[in-house]
Fold this sequence. Notes:
The complex is a heterodimer. By secondary structure, chain A is α/β, with parallel strands linked by helices. Chain A has a single domain, classed as Transcription Regulator spoIIAA. Chain A is 43% helix and 25% strand. Chain A has a 5-stranded mixed β-sheet with strand order 1-2-3-4-5, sandwiched between helices. In chain A, helix 1 runs parallel beside helix 2. By secondary structure, chain B is an alpha+beta fold. Chain B folds into 3 domains: 193 residues, Rhopdopsin 7-helix transmembrane proteins, CATH 1.20.1070; 164 residues, 2-Layer Sandwich (Beta-Lactamase); 225 residues, 4-Layer Sandwich (Phosphatase 2c, domain 1). Chain B has 16 helices and 16 strands. In chain B, strands 3-2-1-6-5-4 form a 6-stranded antiparallel β-sheet, sandwiched between helices. In chain B, strand 1 and strand 2 form a beta hairpin. In chain B, helix 7 packs antiparallel against helix 8, helix 8 packs antiparallel against helix 11 and helix 15 runs antiparallel to helix 16. The chains are: A alpha/beta, B alpha+beta. The interface between A and B is medium-sized, with 26 and 30 residues.
Amino acid sequence: MELHQRSNGSVQIVDIDGDLDLYNSFKLKELVNQLVNSKVAGLILNFQDVSYIDSSGVGVLIYTNSLLKTNNTPFRIIQVHGSVRRVIELTKLIGFLPIVDTEEEALKQVSGKS
Amino acid sequence: MNWLLFATKASVVILSFLFALAFRVRVDERHVAPLQYITLLWLFRDFLYLFLPSPAVLFVSDLAVLTGFLIWLRTYTGSRATDRVWYLVGGIASVLAVLDAFGLPVFIAPARLIVWTFAVIYLGTAFMNVSLYNTPGAELVTDTRIVLIGSWVAVGISSLLMGYQDLVLLHLIHAATYLSVWYILLVNFQLVHTMNELTILNLKRQEATLFDFMETLGEAIAERKPIKNILQEVVSTAVRSTEADGGTIWMVQEESGVLRLSAMEGFYPPPFPCPEGTKRKSSAVEEYLWNVQIPIGKTPLGEAVSDAEPIFVKSSDDDERLSANIDKDILYIKSFIAVPLLVEDRVMGILSLVRRAQEAPFSDEDYGHVRTFANHASMTIDNYYTYLEALEKREIEREVNIAADIQEKLVPRSFPKSRRMEIGVYSNSARGVSGDYYDVLKLDDNKLGIVMCDVAGKGVPAALVMVMIHSILRLIASPKRDVAATLTWINRGLSGQIDLDHYATMSYLTIDENDMVLTYSNAAHHPLMLVRNGSGSIEKVDTQGLPVGIERDMVYPQKRVRIQQGDVMVLYTDGIIEAMNPQGEQFTIERLTEVVRAHREGSATELTKAIRSSVEEFVGSARQHDDQTLLVLKAT
């Protein structure tokens, strides 16, 4: 799995490429911690190129959500599809995690808040 | 002049010629040839002088010899436009001297002296202008030029004092100047020897550096020092072994694709323009370096990365790549090396060194040394990364194994006896990602409590969640407390206690054997599958709620269902319906439903066996990565 960082204004967008599983989801957790420490103004995780997630991956999403909520930093997850969406649906987390369809929408919501 | 004297002089010259032939060590053909022509010229002029004893022969040939030396010099420096003046003056003087010899008194002794003075000054300046910095490899010139110029001055002065055809001048001083070629060649021989010793010393130094470096790195790796320390070790070794003033390592950032400073030793002025404010203090420059991001392809460092080619600027004087560093201030760089750290064809980063003293640029040997060193360093760094990854993986696996042991201890070995319920369980641990946990409790004589649970995350933390659920459940489960409250309490007990990336989906249900009422509450686990006796209709029993461990204030609802004799209830985890065959297809809930429906007449144990063999048949030889757990209840 690879994490590609880019920014739109003060919002950080992380494009995740590959599987988010037991062996690498900690990398995402580390990156999120790093971004929170550097006082990021908003975070969007792009799941367009993620086709597999396991429970440790979902765990990191829950962690990220709650960490950013505590820090009052807007957070969105975008482009969740296929089996990744199914896994999140099954665990009834669709409503819990801030998932929106497109980057445009996410940016609008995130920038509006910050 | 007689033949005997000529023979003496000739033998000196001939020996010089042969000597030059023999000593083509290190010096290549184009440097030796002019010296050989000079000896031949001397031989020819002495021979000519036997028959034509005119000062013109001596004078013209001396000018020719000087021209020979000038040509020799130019084999090192390349040709110069100003030499045309020399050829013009020499040519005119020669013509005049020859005319003089034929009786036209136009070129007498004082004129010769003037020309000779001009000659010595012109050649002397040309020879003295050579330095090792502007003309690499010209050690032979710089080491012999004083003697050469001295011999020309001596010839000039003695011909002024003694007259041009004095016997002493002709046979002693001239002969002595012939030895200058011997001298050059001897110095050459000595130079070759010194060079060899230097090379050996240099190689030894390289070997020692590499050895020390490998040893230090070995220790650092054994102690599992962070990569930052390793890079620091690399850069300080490089700086020490090349006597550089400063050095840096910049690593390519995987996520953003820019270069960032990773290690620095000594003082290193950036080889690119830096903000006005930082220019004055070295600490400000350092601060700036630690924060700057260099796009790949920009600045000399970025270019060396994008081209995957090293850069060597011996002197910033004549190289525009260091235009930001030519003012003699704090940012001045004399000499610059940047070598990419390559693994196969991938550039991981770049090692760069600078020297700042005006008179001491890096030598070609230094540059070669840095390149060899960078090669070894990249290999080591790459190996270290691979090693860390393997270690990390091994650690995760070790934890997973510990977790699996805990999991094994928690699940029940046998089930409490029940009057009206049969229980069948199949559980297969995959030592992979998730921890399945199930339990059957006898709450009182008439009540069973059953839990099915799937803990997310990995290793020991996940196993601890499992232990906590097990403990809280054992502590609070009672026939009086209803199912929803039990689940709500478990959630409250877990939330805030565990890392948020660990959570669990779980179902909890009780069955009252007096009135055969099943009460069910679900924290985002798979719904209970209820197959009715007789009709064979299938109901999904489910309630709302997040997994436990996420939201402390979650209140779970519950559902009551009356069950009849012959009804079958199935609880399962992801591993069952996501069991994968070699084609990558999943077992799916549809297949599970199919099997349950087909075998619902059998006992709970038979049904469990049927599902198990169906799953096993489906997956065939494919390796499973998730725990599989299945629990079947049947009302009797």
